[in-house]
C-alpha cells in the first residue's frame, strides 16, 4: 500500500497541501514527476521553460531527500504512466495539486475516474492560486471580463492560510522502473542558454530568497520603478511562480502587514484574472476572446517576424527587448508591451505568432499570463487596450529608458550614441552616427517600418474592418 504524490507545477515542499496530506496518511510515499513532451499539443513546453524545469526538479529532488524521500521521473503519456504506476505499487492514495489549465484539468478528471476504478483514492488540492479560477461571477452571474471589479470581488473572499512545512521524515516507497532526471532530456544540446545562470537560480530556496530580498529592499519603490526596465525594480518571481516554487498564498500572507503592498498585489491579481479567463474561455490561447476579431485581417509576414524575433527591427527599444528575451529567457513587462504592440500594430502580424515565440523563449512562459498579455496588447482580449491605442516605440524608449542603459546593455552596437539620439538612430545626424561607429544598414538596421505610416495604416485597417 502506497501514497503517490504527483508533482506538476507545485515544485516546492512548503505550503504544499498534497504533500502535507500525503505525510499524514502513514503509508510509504512515492513522489513522482511525469514529463510528456507531446502533451498539450500546440502548447508543449518551450525550450527555455524546459531549461528551468530541469534545475527546478533537481532542487525539488534534493529537498525531498532531506525528508527521507526522493523524486522518481517518468516520460510518456501522463495518464498511461499514472495507470501503470498505480498498478505496480498497489496505490491506496494518489494526491496532487491542481494545475489550472484546460487540458490539465481534463487529465485530472480522467485520473479521478481511472483511480476510482482501481479502488485508489484520488484527491486534488487547490494550491497554486489564491482563488479557484472560473468561480467568480458578476451579480448577473456572468464571468468577469474587466479586471478591477474582478479583483474587488476577489479581495472580499476569504483566503486560506498557507500550510505549514512538512518536517518529519517520511517513508519512501520503492519503485524500480523510473528514469533519471537527465533522461528527460530537458537541457539544450547547443549552449544557447549559457547566460541564463547569471540571472536565474531555479528552485524553492532561491525563490524564497528572492522574495525576501524583494520584500526587504524593493517593494517600497515598486510603484515607481516597475516601469523602468534598466532598474530591475520588479520581483522577477514569474518563473518561480509559474513552476510553483513559491506559494502565492505565502506571498499574500507576507503582504498583509506591508504598507507598500497595493500595487504589487494588483499584479498578483492580474495573474489570478489571467487564470480566471483561461479556465472560463479555454479557447483563448489560440483564438481571440472577442469573437469579432476572429477574421481580423492580420498578415503573415515572415521577414518582419524574423527581424522582430532576432531583435533586428531598427527600433532600439524593441531590439533590446527581443535580445534580452533571447539572451536571458525573460523580458521586462513594459518592454513586453512595447514589442507586442510593435508586432501586431506596426507590423500587422497576428498576435498568435508573438505568443508562440514567447512560449518557446520565456523561462516564465505561462499559458494564462501569456494569453492575457498578447490579447491585451492586440486589443482582442478582456479589458484590453483598445486596438487603436498604438504605442510609439521611440517615445516609449525615451520615457522608460531615459538614460538608455537598457538599450546599451542589449544593443551594444549603439552603445556610443548620446542619450539624445540613441532611441532614434535613423534620425541622428550623420556626424553623430559616424562618431559613435554606427553605420545604418551595415552594423545596425534602418527601421523595418516607418512608425507614423504604420500607425496610420493600422488605424485604417481597423476602421475598414469595423465597417464590414
Ligand atoms: C505580451 C505579454 C506576454 C506575457 N507573457 C507572460 C508569461 O508568459 N508569463 C508570465 O508570467 N507573465 C507574462 N506576462 C506578464 C508580465 O510581463 C510578467 O508576469 C512580468 O514581467 C514578470 O516579471 P516579474 O515577476 O518581475 O513581475 P512583477 O512586476 O514583480 O509581478 C509579480 C508577479 O505578478 C504576476 N504578473 C505581473 N504582471 C502581470 C500581468 N500583466 N499579467 C499577469 N500576471 C502578471 C506575475 O506572476 C509576476 O511574477 C506577459 C505580458 C505581456 C504584455
TrEMBL record:
GO terms assigned for molecular function: deoxyribodipyrimidine photo-lyase activity
Cofactor(s) listed? FAD; (6R)-5,10-methylene-5,6,7,8-tetrahydrofolate
Alphabetized, the UniProt keywords read: Chromophore, FAD, Flavoprotein, Lyase
What organism is listed for this UniProt entry?
A: Candidatus Rhabdochlamydia oedothoracis
Looking up Pfam families in the UniProt record yields:
DNA_photolyase (PF00875), FAD_binding_7 (PF03441)
Lineage of origin: Bacteria, Pseudomonadati, Chlamydiota, Chlamydiia, Parachlamydiales
Q: What is this protein called?
A: Deoxyribodipyrimidine photo-lyase
Q: Which domain of life is it from?
A: Bacteria
Q: Which InterPro entries match?
A: Crypto/Photolyase_FAD-like_sf, Crypto/Photolyase_N_sf, Cryptochr/Photolyase_FAD-bd, Cryptochrome/DNA_photolyase_1, DNA_photolyase_1_CS_C, DNA_photolyase_N, Rossmann-like_a/b/a_fold
Q: Which residues form the Photolyase/cryptochrome alpha/beta domain?
A: 1-130
Which Enzyme Commission number(s) are listed? 4.1.99.3
Spell out the SUPFAM superfamilies in the cross-references: Cryptochrome/photolyase FAD-binding domain (SSF48173), Cryptochrome/photolyase, N-terminal domain (SSF52425)
Q: Which family does it belong to?
A: Belongs to the DNA photolyase family.
